[in-house]
Amino acid sequence: VRILLASRADTAVGAPDVTVRITPNRAPTLFGDRLAEHLVADERYLGYLPWGATLEPGDAPGFPLGPLAPGAAAVATLVLATAEDLPAIEEIAASLVGNDPGDWLDQTLDDWAAWSATGVRVQTSDPRVGDLFDGQRVGIRVQTTASGGVAPMSEYTQVWLRDTEGPVRFLLRAGLPDDARAAFDYMHLCATVEGDYSNSCASRLRPEDAGAEPDWLALGPFGDRQRAEGPSHIPLMARALIDWTGDGALLAERWDWLRRGLLGQTVEEGGRQPFSGDETYRPAMSATVGLPLTFPYEERAWSALSSLLLASAGEWMAEAGAAAGLPGVEEL
């Protein structure tokens, strides 16, 4: 974060000392001359690191810029750094020494320019259409981790299973297949780290965190919010990727994991399936049909959506798997 401060004072005021104050959202953690904030939900720390200045601890931590003469300007540079522990924050702070924030900003600008030159471009007589499309592209990318995980929800810092499918489909249509594949692969990384499918996972994961894959087909039935609905989105994402890119190797590469997403779900007599209990449309549906907003659908109702998603994913898996000569299609 770079802040430009300019003085409009006249000469009679002189050159007052200027200090930039930092107010974290939560109670800060002070260690030495560092300031960090504990992000409880993700078990991480957010460090506030002044570049080229020393933090002054206290009730209102800040860093001084010195006197600001009338008509003069000064730039305050603050680095926001996330890490899993406080020593890692120190390592990031040490990396700032000897570097120029302008160079980092130039590198960031070059990266964005190169990315913005790829994919589909929209040109219409109404510039607002192009702005909407570009806004969607940028909105997804700024909420995507370095490892590909997409967390496109306000106040939610995790990566959610069903909420990844929309960005994957959009990125494919936007001509950004590598970004779409990275988001899909992050779901596989999540499942590998967690030991199975999960409704959501941490956004801080890296490929080296994965370890060995579980024996997907040896795992028991899904429980909790994975019982139905959510896991079907994974094969549907795979179908979209293969349809748009022609990368048929993806199916064999992830075959057992994809089958796990279907075979682990709860299916009752007649093909009925429960709600997952995490569908965001439930309160709106309750209001429409006159039920309490907190009606427990996952306990007292069957979900047509869960069944439709499973049928669609299963039909595609069976056809594509048979065409590729993969095992176990008869179970789908």
Share of residues in strands:
5-15%
Q: What sequence of helices (H) and strands (E) makes up the elements?
A: EEEEEEEHHHEHHEHHHHHH
Distance between the termini: 51 Å
- Number of DSSP strand runs: 9
Structural class: alpha+beta
Can you summarize the main beta sheet?
5 strands, antiparallel
Strand order of the largest sheet: 1-7-5-4-3
Q: How would you portray this structure in words?
A:
- The chain has about 325 residues and is of the alpha+beta class.
- It contains 11 helices and 9 strands.
- A hairpin with a 2-residue loop joins strand 3 and strand 4.
- Helix 4 packs antiparallel against helix 5, helix 5 runs antiparallel to helix 6 and helix 8 runs antiparallel to helix 11.
- The model has no long low-confidence stretch (mean pLDDT about 90).
- The radius of gyration is 25 Å and the shape is elongated.
